[in-house]
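Section 3.1: Structural characterization of target chains.
Under the original work plan, the team committed to producing a structural model for every single-chain target entering the pipeline before any wet-lab resources were allocated. The record below documents one such target. The sequence was received from the expression subgroup and is listed exactly as submitted; it comprises 258 residues.
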Amino acid sequence: MKKLWKKIFAKKERTVAQQIRRRTIFSFTVFSLLLFVGYEGWLWLYDQPDTASGAKKPLREGLQVNEGIFRKIFSNDHLAKSYPKSAAVKQPKVNGDVGMSSGFDYMHWRMKLVRKPGDTISVSLQDILMMPKTEVIFDFKCVEGWSQVTHWGGVRFSDFAKKYNLDTQTNMQYVGLVTPDKQYYVGIDMPSMMHPQTLLCYEMNGKFLPLDQGFPLRLIIPVKYGIKHLKRIGTIYFSNERPADYWAERGYDYYSGL
């Protein structure tokens, strides 16, 4: 009887060992195949032509497909989540300093509003302050992977557009924004710019913006990643063609929507 049980257990042990061996071989084979496919895919992508923005053509085409999807589902009813003031950080990170050149003369700052070629008006901070104030407290997201709940105050761009009779301009496809030193620039699709949470912002945590956060006026656009939140606005203009965009020229997503 003991010999019989020994034979049964020995058979079971061999069966378990065989199953482990088969699974190990299968797993190793699948891993090797995926590694090979990944390597060959990388070689294929590496050999693809670059676009004008520096990104490989298949990657840029993929980003354009994503943009098409985002734009179809975009709505002013889709708001970034709001938080209580107590949730906002006291010292928000500064997401980049391109366009924030030293020697900026904030005492004489005026924003250039280019309604059309040959029709530019000058807008002061006092002009902005006379308009209705709106506050947003949202989770500011950076493409580097970090996020922070932040508190901002300013004028809705849609209110600004109404004040300056920009009906013709807001029927165009894009808005371009440029820093006074022209070193940083973004292009924003008009629906996102007219979103009710998009601000021409002059306050952070209830006080005027610090210089390194874009004083006297910056863009806050919660439906976009931080690379679109241009600090220190010098010029705003309108176009039916995509305006130049600093990070899109370096291979990043032009739309950068959330």
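Strands lie at 111-116, 119-123, 134-141, 147-156, 174-178, 185-189, 199-204, 207-208, 218-220, 235-239.
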